[in-house]
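lol so apparently i was supposed to do this last week
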Amino acid sequence: MNKTHSEEYINNNQNQLDFTFQNLKYSIKTREGTKEIIKGIDGIFPNSQVTAILGSSGAGKTTLLNIITKRITKLSSNELEGQVLVNGQPYTSESFSSFANYVMQDDILTETMTVRECITFAANMKVRGGQKKRNDLVNDMIKQLKLEKCQNTQIGGQFVKGISGGERKRTSIGFELVCDPQSIFLDEPTSGLDSFNAYILIDMLRKFAHEKKRTVVFTIHQPSSEIWNMFDRIMLLVNGKFIYQGSGGNQIQKYFSGQGFECPIFSNPADYYMSLMSQDKQINVINTPLYFKNYDEIIKDSVQYQINFSNKQEIIPNQKFIPIYMQFYYIVVRTIQIQIRSPILFKAKLGQVTILAVFLGLIYYQLPNGENDPYNIVDARNKNGFLFFLATGAFMESMNAATLSFPTERQVFLREENSKLYKIFPYFFGKLLVDLVSDFIIPIIFCCIVYWMVGLRNNLEAFLFFNLIMIILQFTGIAAGYFEGCLFKDPNLAYGVAQLITLPLFPFSGFYKNSGDLASWISWVQYISPFNYAYQAFVRNEYEQTYFIPNPIEAENIQFTKWEAVGYLCLMFLGYLILAFFFLKRSLKTLQ
Ligand SMILES: Nc1ncnc2c1ncn2[C@@H]1O[C@H](COP(=O)(O)OP(=O)(O)OP(=O)(O)O)[C@@H](O)[C@H]1O
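anyway here it is w/ adenosine-5'-triphosphate bound
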């Protein structure tokens, strides 16, 4: 062997992963008591093989997969015991994602993205190398999964019809497989697929295992006999314990026929063994202890032997985070794509703002500036009412929209975070950047209409400062919305609580009640009210030069300069963002 070949041999060997588990027990605490789900089992998922886990519903297949993939960890509400290793080494959920991927039962994908864009996003986030390499991988994956016809169709969801359930499942698989992980775990990958497409998929996974020496493990219900014959290794699980673990094909048939459970000719072995495992039949309930006894006597030692001699080579993970700035870039590009795909949202906002601006402009049309009647308190009060309306309306409008943003994307975010596609920092700030930029134009349009219609101070500097206040106010609203959205996972709850937290701050704006008249025990609230700072900035900006006597700046007890007020709004913006980031980080949990 020359040097290159020997290096390649070592690398290939190091990339072959054997997952082993010993004395694995898992139980959960319920109101009725402790429920044992996995009952002290040993096993091995060898590299270069396809392992299928079968069992009746509720046998513990998904739970076993969730434990091996580190989606289940020890909590106060459960008990988890035993050793789970890869190549003889323990691993964490973080390190798992550097050499393995997991396709869960639920296909959580971004609804407005197309099939190709979804798979490309995963490739961009996890595959190192040039764009050409990534494009080739994506093209290959689309071809292998037979997704060519729908590659440019949006995933779709509750409101938009998109791809079919089977195509969705295959896209989910492509999303994980495109990164060429050293091992892949799949929970019921064939559910929703017709028998032909199920066959194609398992064949593809088999080639992936055999040709690339990858570890492939999945749970499966009702495989056809053609699919059954493709399994290298089969695990049969009944009530959290194995009744068989070993090679597929003739060997499993020999094992069971040796015990008097002969699979009838011309019947599908999978159906036959599933019928043996069903706990709905009385005869199986009677036979189950016998299955376990035979397993302990005939199979257990050989599994132990395989575990002892499993691959112990050092692992060289092949999936690493791309640099943070690249993660940020791809998040930004995707968020823009999502926003462009929902032009209705932007148009609705634009329409709403324009109509509102004209409406307000008509109601407050050309308010007097006090030149002809400086003592007219009603005129000054009308103008203040308008400024107060802006201070609250602009904030609430942007906050409400932003409140829904995180909860509605939560599942996708958790799924991608669990797959370690990106870190929370680029996700959060990538989204924020797009939201801020797209919301930049709206307040400017609003100001251009309303400022001159209402007849506010006829001065360019005052007009520009008015725009600045509106922009900062909208940004603060977005940050407040992020905070409330990160606090709750349910969009409706987040929206409701946002109103509950914000509405009580209205009276502390200085308009409804003069800030100098607030009782001392409650007057501190004005300092956490964004409406107070916005209202003060608007009033200062408008009445810096005025004919009104007394000057409303004094009458309204305005304490801050306009720059100070805007500065405090900026601080609130930062404060909300820090809180939002903290709660988003805290909300991270392992998807099971
Ligand atoms: N958090 C939980 N709380 C209560 N019971 C649970 C919990 N998680 C799992 N179980 C129970 O554990 C058992 C095994 O669940 P699991 O999802 O692993 O079964 P499964 O073999 O994958 O079933 P299926 O084929 O129907 O998906 C079931 O009886 C399930 O109800």
